[in-house]
Amino acid sequence: MPTIDPRVDEYIANSAEFAQPILAHLRGVIHAACPEVKETIKWSMPNFEHHGLLCNFASFKQHCAFGFWKGELLLAGEDDKGKEAMGQFGRITSVQDLPSKKVLTAYIKKAMKLNEEGVKVARPKAAPRELLVPDYFIAALEGNPAAYEVFNGFSTSAKRDYCDWLTEATRNKRMAQAVEWIAEGKKRHWKYESC
């Protein structure tokens, strides 16, 4: 038995007039393909769950979007219009922009099977940003040997916090504050650390 969320009804009703038949069609296909699907609202848009996130849709001023949580596994090697808009089907302005009901149903069934089997999408880890300590900051730290020693003992992320903070705004004021805190052995967000 499907789990209907009245917030999805409200979302569809509050969408642009062109979007309402698109969203209603998608919702119907999803429920027909996966009768035990659970509706919810996440990230301010309707999401459908079956052993985890399955798919979602959204409406915008001039288009709709529809996508699968594991879309890269479902549509591998197929024409992915994901660069045009959110999801894998590009900018959807009418029901005709979607694959046929039969094709959508096959995608939904495949997505269900992936979730039931616990298949995970391998998400590439972002390469860590290079730590760039500005020359003027190094010079200021070298002027206070205690601060220089403590700074060099900080983790890369703690050092990066200070460098980002210095380069984002008023350099001289923040540099003086940074050197003072570092000399005291404090990390950039020391105020928020538990005692």
From TrEMBL:
Pfam families: DUF1801, OmdA. It comes from the Bacteria. Residues 20-112 form the YdhG-like domain. Coiled coil: none annotated. This is YdhG-like domain-containing protein. It comes from Pseudoduganella guangdongensis.
